[in-house]
Design goal:
Strand content: 5-15%
Low-confidence stretches: 414-436
Distance between the termini: 18 Å
Number of helices: 18
Largest sheet: 5 strands, parallel
Structural class: alpha/beta
Helix content: 40-55%
Radius of gyration: 24 Å
Strand order of the largest sheet: 2-3-4-1-5
CATH topology of the largest domain: Rossmann fold
Number of domains: 3
CATH class of the largest domain: Alpha Beta
């Protein structure tokens, strides 16, 4: 039985792949392999659900699928009722800065905040309003008055006040409730602006909300910890922070002091998460092998952090260890690439049901074409292969007078010489199936 693929998922998958980017929804329909890596991530999510924490560094060469894996873990986290925030590191958005760079990263994370019911992001207001309305409902159901609701909110926020920077965080949530009760949209918007780190001066925040501090470069990590605790209070399983493009630190930050300051912040996060000093919070960082192991500019140049992330002496010759904070992603094998293209074909023709337009032997011919055009290591560049594949499917669909032999004729040669097992992939193949 073929998979049921929603039109929205199909469009998101094909449009993203055609543009060379990773789709945010529907990833389970094209997922290939990574069984052990996903099991490691699922065990991390278990820790967060049990009031713990985790930190993971997803490391691989260009084309190994780091961003895809990051988005796949995001989908799993959302399916488990977690709050997920994500952003890419740039020279103007980083973990540590002195001119608003760290605040910009925090603001981007909060803009992309997603939940199971709002996967595309922008869910901050939903979370805060849901929490406020739930507290109000429970108090009034128990016979309490409006004044009792405010007291209950203050009581529930008290544990947050005991954390670093927690007093202002709790105070802003109380201000949101004041605006909620009085239907003061301006006050509610001001509270959300503060929570998204959109205030750049303390004066403006004090005028709008009466608070003395704002979220700035010095304290973004403290507020991530606070928000993780708050998600638990709001009925979610915890907070997962996904940060991609970590290679910017090692290869685009030319100032050694700036690099080391960001590695120092990473060290603080790693120490806290591994030692159990934070709760309901997990971090997933994605970067290249050079980011991790470059002795001159990478993590390996910062001895204290490298000591915690370096792989053991016995992790070699294809052996893996998923118990540590680093997950190394191998590039797709030729077999993996074949299964991936089969999955994409099924998505493309999921509504028409005419996948015979591009049968298995056509995929073999296409792979031979890629090998000829891109060289022997074409499978190291799955992004380009996938873009071309979606393109050839589109051309055939829009030009029904043509067939795949017209486009790939001379490349329909012995694919089995390159692939050990060319048996058709069935639904039970662990490389082609994944369930959330």
């Amino acid at each position: 039985m073929s998979k049921v693929i929603k039109r929205r998922e199909k469009d998101a998958i094909l449009q993203s792949l055609r543009a060379g980017v990773v789709p945010k929804i529907g990833l389970q329909h094209i997922q290939v392999g990574r069984k052990k890596e996903l099991e490691a991530m699922i065990s991390d999510f278990d820790r967060v659900e049990n009031d713990g924490s985790f930190v993971r560094f997803t490391i691989g060469k260009y084309g190994s699928g780091k961003s895809f894996f990051l988005n796949l873990s995001r989908a799993i986290a959302l399916s488990r009722n977690m709050v997920v925030i994500n952003a890419d590191i740039t020279t103007e958005r980083r973990l540590n800065g002195t001119n608003g760079q760290a605040r910009s990263l925090y603001a981007e994370l909060m803009r992309n905040l997603a939940t199971r019911s709002k996967t595309e992001g922008g869910a901050l207001s939903n979370i805060v309003e849901k929490w406020v309305s739930d507290v109000e409902y429970k108090v009034k159901q128990g016979g309490g008055a409006q004044g009792d609701v405010k007291g209950e909110i203050q009581k529930k926020l008290k544990p947050l006040q005991e954390l670093v920077s927690g007093y202002d965080f709790a105070d802003v949530l109380e201000k949101y409730y004041e605006g909620y009760v009085s239907m003061n949209d301006r006050l509610q918007d001001a509270a959300l602006r503060w929570l998204r780190a959109e205030y750049t001066t303390k004066t403006e925040a004090r005028e709008d909300l009466g608070v003395r501090n704002i979220i700035d470069d010095k304290n973004i990590y403290d507020y991530l910890k606070l928000f993780g605790s708050f998600t638990g209070m709001a009925g979610y399983s915890g907070l997962v922070v996904n940060i991609d493009e970590m290679g910017v630190f090692s290869h685009r930050l030319n100032n050694a002091s700036a690099r080391n300051n960001n590695y120092e912040m990473l060290l603080r996060i790693v120490n806290d998460c591994l030692q159990g000093s934070v709760s309901r919070l997990g971090f997933v960082f994605a970067g290249t092998e050079e980011f991790l192991s470059d002795r001159r500019r990478g993590v390996a140049s910062y001895e204290a952090l490298w000591a915690r992330l370096s792989l053991g002496s016995f992790v070699k010759d294809g052996l893996k260890d998923y118990s540590g904070p680093v997950i190394q992603l191998d590039n797709l094998t030729l077999e993996d690439l074949y299964v991936l293209l089969m999955n994409i074909r099924e998505v493309y023709f999921s509504e028409q049901g005419n996948s015979a337009i591009f049968p298995a032997e056509a995929i073999e011919a296409f792979i031979s074409w890629c090998s000829y055009k891109m060289g022997a290591e074409f499978f190291l560049k799955p992004r380009e292969v996938v873009r071309e594949f979606v393109g050839v499917l589109s051309v055939l669909e829009q030009n029904p007078e043509k067939n795949w032999q017209d486009l790939l004729g001379n490349y329909s040669r012995a694919f089995e010489d390159d692939v050990q097992d060319d048996t058709p992939v069935d639904d039970e193949d662990e490389l082609s199936s994944f369930k959330l």
